[in-house]
């Protein structure tokens, strides 16, 4: 008679290594498309909510705004979630950058890229926002558009 195999859970208890959960997001490669800039978002994660360990999508600033609006709405529906921390801001706009050629200046694009990266890492690592399905789609679904 053979002994039944131990489950993975039992093996972990006995000391086998278990990789910690993490998510890291890099916003890079700003590219001008007509009258706007898109950013490449590359995510590396072990969070079980995601289909793969590494994936990339391209998004424009307006989609970040719409994502943040959605997260803000979710927070309003569950105000007790604020105990996990506030919703991070997006990098700001100014009138010359919105309507003039300033939005295509390398310095402005780089500052925005850094702010977008900081925003995404903040919400993806947030104990409430990390479980919002739209965030998962935003980071991994190529066909999603939030315009």
TrEMBL record:
<dbReference type="Pfam" id="PF00787">
    <property type="entry name" value="PX"/>
</dbReference>
<dbReference type="InterPro" id="IPR001683">
    <property type="entry name" value="PX_dom"/>
</dbReference>
<dbReference type="GO" id="GO:0005768">
    <property type="term" value="C:endosome"/>
</dbReference>
<dbReference type="InterPro" id="IPR036871">
    <property type="entry name" value="PX_dom_sf"/>
</dbReference>
<feature type="domain" description="PX">
    <location>
        <begin position="17"/>
        <end position="146"/>
    </location>
</feature>
<dbReference type="GO" id="GO:0035091">
    <property type="term" value="F:phosphatidylinositol binding"/>
</dbReference>
<protein>
    <recommendedName>
        <fullName>PX domain-containing protein</fullName>
    </recommendedName>
</protein>
